[in-house]
Amino acid sequence: MEVNVHHAKTNLSKLIAAVEDGEEVIIARNGKPAVKLVIASPPIRKSRKHLRGSGIGKIWMAEDAFSPETDALIESMFDFNDPDALV
Predict the structure, then answer these.
(1) Which residues, in sequence order, are CB contacts of 34 under 8 Å at separation 6+?
(2) Which of 30, 40, 70, 80 has the highest CB neighbour count under 10 A?
């Protein structure tokens, strides 16, 4: 179905219903097709993985993560003055 802009303005609800029923609706301006009404795709739901707390139980920390030995090891990895210090 092809309608002009004025008809589309006054009957927009009916035109939307027609498109939902599968009919093709084209709105013309000055007798020339300008736009085509189509059904919008349903919005894409975002994954819930981005929510706070979604990593609970998936991340763990070693018992010795903050021990003096671990601190010394990490410090030696970033001590660029002593090339023999790398492990």
Answers:
(1) 5, 26, 27, 28
(2) 70
